[in-house]
Amino acid sequence: MRALVQCVSEAQVLVEGQTVGSIGKGYLILLGVGENDTEAQAEKLWHKISRMRVFEDENGKTNLSLADVGGEVLVVSQFTLYANCRKGNRPSFTEAALPEEANRLYEYFCKLASEDVATVEKGVFGAMMDVQLTNHGPFTIWLDTEAL
Asked: Taking the model in full, what pTM does it have?
């Protein structure tokens, strides 16, 4: 499982011009599910994300977690995080999970997040989405469960 985690001042996701998810300060998480991922990867990834200390404390040091700042979470499915660009100019996505399994694990990840965070918003799995954000810092972190 892969996640691109962005600290945001605000973020929203729109489908056909309508806002389907919106948050203030917190994380925008672009989440990709790989073909061999399981609930264990979702748990491992959420555990890491929820405990990351990337928000600034009163001294300007990145010592605070999402819980410490009362942050919110917006999770957007992003199979393109599994793009393979080794051959040719058109990315291959064969390493991404099949849609049914990817959606199941995406929803499971969101459920895990909602157990720890008061506000968890989502995109619409499989939809064409427009994501808008104000990246705070900017602070962006790439996580892959194979490397955790």
From this structure: 0.96
Q: Which residue range forms the structural domain that includes residue 133?
A: 2-147
Catalytically annotated residues: 78-80
What would the pLDDT profile of 49-94 be if each residue is shown by its tens digit? Answer: 999 999 999 999 999 999 999 999 999 999 999 999 999 999 999 9
Please give the tally of structural domains in the chain. Answer: 1
Alpha-carbon distances of 129 from 14, 18, 70, rounded to whole Å: 6, 10, 26
User: What CATH number should be reported for the domain holding residue 122?
Assistant: 3.50.80.10
Find the helix or strand (DSSP H, E) in which 76 lies: strand 72-77
d(CA 73, CA 52): 13
